[in-house]
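Retro notes
What went well: the complex prediction finally ran end to end.
Inputs used:
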Amino acid sequence: MGFSLYEKIFNRHTVRKDKDTYLLYIDRHLVHEVTSPQAFEGIRIANRDIWRKKSIIAVPDHNVPTTDRSNEIKDPISKIQVETLDKNCEEFDLLEFKMDDSRQGIVHVIGPEQGSTLPGMTIVCGDSHTSTHGAFGAIAMGIGTSEVEHVLATQCLIVNKFKTMRINVNGNLQNGVTAKDIALATIGKIGTAGGTGHAIEFAGTLIKSLSMEGRMTLCNMAIEAGSRVGLIGVDNKTIEYIQNKHLAPKGILWEKAKKDWIDLVSDEDAEFDSEIEIDGSSIEPQVSWGTSPEMVVSITGKVPNPINYSDKTLSSSYQAALEYMNLKPETPINKIFIDKVFIGSCTNSRIEDLRAAASIVGTKKIAKNIKLALVVPGSGLVKLQAESEGLDKVFKNAGFEWREPGCSMCLAMNADKLDPGERCASTSNRNFEGRQGQGGRTHLVSPQMAAAAAIYGKFVDIRELN
Amino acid sequence: MEPFNIHKGIVIPLDRANVDTDAIIPKQFLKSIKKTGFGPNLFDEWRYLDHGEPNQDNSKRQINPNFVLNIPRYKNGSILIARENFGCGSSREHAPWALLDFGIKVIIASSFADIFYGNCFKNGILPITLNKNIVDQIFIKVENKIGYEISINLEKQKIYDESEIASFEIDNFKKSCLMDGLDDIGLTLKNEIDIKNFEKKYQESFPWLIDKES
């Protein structure tokens, strides 16, 4: 029996094995300001050193303001956290893209952008959306702060092997349907715990047809299906994307690496603990209606009615979600009006996302009922690229605000947030209660759907726009 | 980390599925650079009726009398029981830090999200997965008896009230770390030579992944 991609990479990195417990070597460690201060403090207290400093790239992204950065961060507690990261990186001599660096951005956007995310790697970060990097044929996973400290001190993690799940997506996407919709439809099908304990490999002809950025969007949301790891086999697109990136191997090393990478796919006879089939052709643009990413329907659908569900826990979850979201059962999705729009986050803030959103906006203006529409590029380099293409002008002319890069209103740790009761079309990844601000109501959608919602003031089926 | 063996305590019923770590400890409290002091803001948005911010005097806030942590019969509880997929979402270890700071030592659920589950062990909290029916039964017992207490014996992997009510599965390595209160890093560094040897061979096989001088 052959190996799955996950097993191949896992085996390469196994330092030791003791029954079901493995010591796994880590190639790349991404660090941000929120989940690292206590880890650095632990290293200092125990008088330990950092094992391999060059494996680390640090960036502040969660707390940073997206407005003018020429002044200091206003919130004194956020300021301390960002400054603590700066100090730690100086003390331990680590590569950091500081807030005023054009390479600064969301940690999961800048990793691939810099060529620091490579096939076959093990990549960790104290952030659940680390699964994003699996798009490159890597084992990439989110870890807690104790594990951040463990990797800093030992370059390893103590882990159990995950089970494997393959999600095969075949068919052709309808116009206007994106990787985000595949992710949401998949989570709607298998649930937010569907992938728990598993590494999910996305496979099938439709996955192969996705761009690298689309693949990142999909792997990013593996964690919303409960899986710490989402990954996709290497192909020519993967290799082309990496070539000539700043930190990518060059010369002879590049040739050697390429030869190795092309084998980073699951063997034909690999067996998976479970397999799921998804017909990509039938996926419609998705809109989440509730307070968990699995509470999602198509744009042509309606908000469900809790009385139709016999499972008590499910029915009461639905009831609570509808109350929080202030929605009546069976409301058609295209009758839901919104207050704010957020285009950004590690899920959907790359250049293709911004191009796609801008193409829907065109010369139109945002609707009168929209109080705020934000576009937050994923990195300084994405922002510069978008500006060189004039996308910033498209957004600004329509009434969007064009901001500096960061996590922003995906989790509202900085000043960008929803006020209580406000309803938002968001390209982010979580619609949990209070996620975008206490009392805020989030509907997860693709960049195109968010842009269209901004123009029409409500959710519309982008397939019906010309 | 405090060694864990037997724990007895009052059970607090949080009758919800998919309790996410954003709910356990909202984002504004993640700005702290410490591991302690999160307890008063555990489940902040459910527990209080007003909006919470860091460094606030929480004793002056308006509490939500209907939320389980504010119901007198569950006061001083140290065992939390909830429905499936507890701890989903963000990897923030501030979630177990908040639970621990509040006084929670054991969490029972019909399933847990992976990252949260692992984070509990790093902080001396025991997460116990039980099948749905047993979780249902415990919820009923908690409802029917004020001050309902259970006792958990980690070594035997059993749960008791007046008599044994359940046994549970746990990974042996995680169990021993919890029972001995072991520091993972110290444990791994005992294998320092193995890591160095691995790194050397790895560098030869995959030179583009690791700088010689790094």
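What we learned: Residues 76-92 of chain A form the longest helix (17 residues).
What to try next: split runs per interface for comparison.
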